[in-house]
From TrEMBL:
Name of this chain's protein: mevalonate kinase
Protein species of origin: Streptomyces asoensis
Localization per Swiss-Prot or TrEMBL: Cytoplasm
GO molecular function: ATP binding; mevalonate kinase activity
Keyword hit for Kinase: yes
UniProt-listed Pfam families: GHMP_kinases_C (PF08544), GHMP_kinases_N (PF00288)
Length: 345
């Protein structure tokens, strides 16, 4: 079988688990799933201990299928990954490195030894490099596929630690918010490794617009760090402002004040733009959403590309979506708050 463009390796899902301990007899195929996320507020500041608000995006999913290799000559104990779609070569290399490390850590944590070569296929709808948690979602799906394959019970705490292993390889220092949010059913408040579900007292829709430009999280993190180093007190001012906006947004979401929530989104975008983390296309999308009647809009994720998220009342949703596409959005998704509130109960 020849590789298709964008694949890390060829794969067929095998049916033999020969070589696996009888004490841990595995299934022939293990399945794991996860979904996308969007950051409402708290990007970058969360790395410095500030709170962040994260939104699950259940429309965008990742499914991982793990099985035993049927290819003769594959190295026992190793793993091969196949990813659907056509991510860039650097992304494929990054994904392979982080997921290989993840698999090693999983085997150690779950006391798996002496297994044959594994093949893992990852089928996902989350666009890469857009700040929607694609790497964390892939890692979580793989973790649960391996747990299913080997017949292991996996706690949320163990899953989080394993996903963080992959995230730290992929992105360097990772706050952990993505690792939590890609498995959450409701919006989360995340701070210093801990999370809790948010109270939702607002109606409305979040519209996520893809700029079509791959974000550069590592570059954005370095840009912000350099700015902090060049200006005394800049880090403290940034984190303090970000924390205040995030806290005000949390209370607005719980208290049924969508206009105030929207205003805090836009204020946070201004904070990130002032730090040099936005782009002309992102700013154009934010302006288009606001012009069309959104209550607030901002970049979401690491910055220097990626997506915009806008809070919109249902009556404005059609016009907001239209103007976002006219301003350059290549695709959009709608996440209704009411559905998330139902999950949170």
């Amino acid at each position: 079988m020849q590789n298709r463009p964008g694949e890390l390796s060829a794969l067929t899902l095998p049916t033999s688990a020969e070589g696996v301990s009888e004490n841990h007899r595995a299934r022939s195929v293990g399945i794991g799933r996860a979904h996308a996320k969007a950051i409402l507020l708290g990007e970058h500041a969360v790395v410095y201990g500030a709170p962040a608000l994260a939104l699950p995006v259940p429309q965008l999913t990742v499914t991982a299928s793990a099985g035993w290799s049927s290819h003769a000559g594959d190295d026992p104990g190793d793993v091969s990954f196949t990813m659907t779609g056509s991510p860039s070569r650097p992304m494929m290399t990054q994904a392979s490195d982080s997921l290989r490390r993840l698999t090693t850590e999983f085997k150690a944590a779950m006391d798996v030894a002496g297994s044959p070569h594994l093949d893992v296929i990852i089928d996902g709808a989350i666009p890469h490099g857009r700040g929607l948690g694609s790497s964390a979602a892939c890692a979580r799906a793989v973790v649960f596929a391996l747990a299913d394959l080997f017949g292991r019970d996996l706690t949320e705490a163990a899953a989080y630690d394993l996903v963080q292993t992959a995230e730290n390889v992929a992105h360097g220092r990772s706050s952990g918010v993505d690792a939590r949010a890609v498995g959450a059913l409701a919006p989360l408040l995340f701070q210093a490794g801990r999370s809790e579900e948010l109270s939702i007292g607002c109606d409305g829709l979040f519209i996520i617009a893809d700029s079509g430009v791959v974000g550069r999280t590592k570059d954005a993190v370095e840009l912000l760090r350099e700015g902090f180093q060049q200006h005394a007190g800049a880090q403290e001012r940034f984190v303090r402002r970000a924390s205040r906006l995030t806290d005000e947004a949390r209370h607005a979401l719980a208290g049924g004040r969508p206009e105030r929530l929207g205003a805090r989104l836009t204020d946070y975008h201004d904070l990130l733009r002032a730090a040099g983390l936005s782009t002309k296309r992102i700013d154009a999308l934010v302006e288009a959403a606001l012009t069309a009647g959104s209550l607030g809009a901002k970049i979401t994720g690491g910055g220097l590309g990626g997506c915009v998220i806008a809070l919109t009342q249902p009556v404005q949703a059609r016009e907001v979506t239209r103007q976002l596409h006219e301003a350059g959005a290549v695709q959009t998704w709608v996440v209704p708050l009411r559905g998330l509130a139902d999950h949170a109960r």
